[in-house]
Amino acid sequence: MILYPSVDELLKQVDSRYSLIMLASKRAHEIDKYRLDKDRAQDSDKPVDLEMDKPLLLNHYNSTKSVGMALEEIEAGMVSIDDSED
Fold this sequence. Notes:
The protein has 86 residues and is an all-alpha fold. The protein has one domain (7-75). The protein contains three helices and no strands. The protein has helices spanning 7-10, 17-43, 66-75. Helix 2 (17-43) packs across helix 3 (66-75). The longest helix has 27 residues, at 17-43. The chain starts with 6 loop residues before the first helix and ends in an 11-residue tail after the last helix. The model has no long low-confidence stretch (mean pLDDT 88). Promotes RNA polymerase assembly. Latches the N- and C-terminal regions of the beta' subunit thereby facilitating its interaction with the beta and alpha subunits. It catalyses: RNA(n) + a ribonucleoside 5'-triphosphate = RNA(n+1) + diphosphate.
């Protein structure tokens, strides 16, 4: 169960709970990949391509977990569903 951000606040940004879950899941995977690649780049002598990674969008997060971070970005209006994709 999530307490912050509240589901009611999140549903102001996304039209359904299903869409919210899908959007948060996709963004959480992007956050995990970014963090992993960034750590790998710092620990390695070999160059790591961060060009395709999507960086963190907020300056401060209340959550340390990727799903919580994704939900915070959704609530802030930084992440939304692109209806043009098929």
